[in-house]
Amino acid sequence: MDTPHTTSQRLNQDLCLAYIAKNLLALAPANLSATTFGIELEVLPFFCPAEKQKKPALRPQLLPFNQGKPNLFALLHELVQAQAWQLLLEEHSSAQRPLLGKIVTDHHDYFTCEPGGQLEFSSAPFVSFSAARLRLTAVQRQLDQLFAAHHATLLQVGANPWYSVEEIGLRFTKPRYLAMDAYFSRLSPLGRKMMRQTASIQVSLDAGNDEETMVERYLASQLLSPFAAALFANSPYIGGEKPSSIDGHRAHIWANFEAARSGFPALTKICNERSLAACQQSYLDFLLAAPVIFISSLDFRVPTAPLTFAHWLREGYQGIMPSIEDFSVHCSLHFPEVRPRGTFLELRSVDCQARLWQLVPAAFFAGLLYDSKARQAILGRLLPFVDKLPQLHGAAAYGLQQAEIAEIAAFLMSQAEAGFSRLPANFRDPETTQALQLFNKCFTAEGKTPGGALRQAVLAEGRDFPHLDTYRRIEEHWQDLFA
């Protein structure tokens, strides 16, 4: 990748801004489509020993990453061999402890693993929802067959319901994750919870190929984030902790684990100027104010005291000045609700959903951001909340229990349905349209969330915590609604 940095020129804010303009917030060429989308799906792998199949335990076992039988790496390696996919190992792998870099499929999508053993599937860009549905179905069928043969399973939910941070451990020990774990251990328990217990569906949408559209999509996606987190809340249980009224533990964690690294950049100047330059400068300010997690050239050492990138850029650290590569790493360790990724925006607010609903968040965002009429409607409705996003983000953990959030979520969902219906017929598909409408009918229009529905199902069974079968039964109930 070309960068604005040369070995003879010391890194400065102007070069960092140029990097953002080229690599993070850049207009797509005018001749390219601006209505593709991508999905990143994080799922939780578990092991269900054969002797417990007839009478499932309260909780399945954690699936080891690369030790014991079965383990996640061995299962994925078996899939790679069967499909003739490409397996790439981390630089620090060994024969005794192989570390997965990524698995690249014949469709140019790929699998990676998160620190708590979460398995992530990252799609190539889809040109339509029918293409997305076909691809996700095919991949999940392959995984289901493989995992079932080894008495393992994959659960799609926003947080690990049964296992604590300590029980999970750091299951994927590449140097980057070890440094992140050490850094977050100094702050609060929430950073380690974020790494080890949470799972999401991330939706990537094209930012646009003209400045007005891109700025509107960037701004509108920020304003949508707390409400999306609320209406898709799907993590009422976490780590075997005592149940509470929280519908989305993942939202609670991400809203509170480190304000300088998550959440939202300053948006007031963007609202006033409506320029791409304002978006780029705002994001640079956000990045510069965030602490550095580790310094790669010092063997991933975590600074002994808080060190913002702005301070490192200005004064250095132990005689080392940052390079553009250090800035790129720092960008990758920044976790805003909307992460700019070149010519597309990665929307990160949503809990992982059951398979029946897994394309609904993408349809929701596409309907609101790709349709200009819906986009203008939500900007008009949400701009008054621009200074309240952190508070709304914190409240999103309670789903739609607050009247104002429930009312705005219902408005957004109705706009999403209308906007999605106006998108080109060859982009949307009948199944996703039906799922979006049914999600609204079952949850949003009733002031409920998937997490709230799960909690009701568990209480109806007379339990404090869900069994694995609880998730299966509630998905079967939702599936029956399609009949």
What can you see in these coordinates?
The strands form two sheets. Strands 1, 2, 3, 4, 5, 6, 7, 8, 11 and 12 form a ten-stranded antiparallel β-sheet that branches. A two-stranded parallel sheet has the order 9-10. β11 and β12 (344-351) form a beta hairpin. The N and C termini lie far apart (50 Å). It has a single domain, classed as Creatine Kinase, Chain A, domain 2 (2-Layer Sandwich). Helix content is 45%, strand content 12%. The longest helix is centred in the N-terminal third of the chain and has 21 residues, at 129-149. α1 (13-23) crosses α10 and α13 packs across α17 (430-442). It is globular. The chain contains 19 helices and twelve strands. Residues 1-7 have low confidence and may be disordered. It is α+β, with helices and mostly antiparallel strands and 483 residues long.
Rounded to the nearest angstrom, the radius of gyration is 22 Å
Overall number of structural domains:
1
Going by CATH, the architecture would be 2-Layer Sandwich
Give the count of helical stretches: 19
What portion of residues is helical? 40-55%
Question: SS-based structural class?
Answer: alpha+beta
> What is the mean predicted local confidence, pLDDT?
93
Low-confidence stretches: 1-7
Secondary structure elements and their pairing?
Layout: H1 13-23, E1 37-47, E2 61-62, H2 72-83, E3 86-89, E4 100-104, E5 110-113, E6 119-122, H3 129-149, E7 152-155, H4 165-168, H5 175-185, H6 189-197, E8 200-206, H7 211-231, H8 249-256, E9 262-263, H9 268-273, H10 276-288, H11 309-315, H12 324-332, E10 335-336, E11 338-340, E12 344-351, H13 360-369, H14 372-382, H15 389-395, H16 403-422, H17 430-442, H18 450-460, H19 468-482
Parallel strand pairs: 9-10
Antiparallel strand pairs: 1-2, 1-6, 1-7, 1-8, 3-4, 4-5, 5-6, 8-12, 11-12
Helix pairs in contact: 1-10, 6-8, 7-14, 7-15, 7-16, 8-15, 13-16, 13-17, 14-16, 16-17
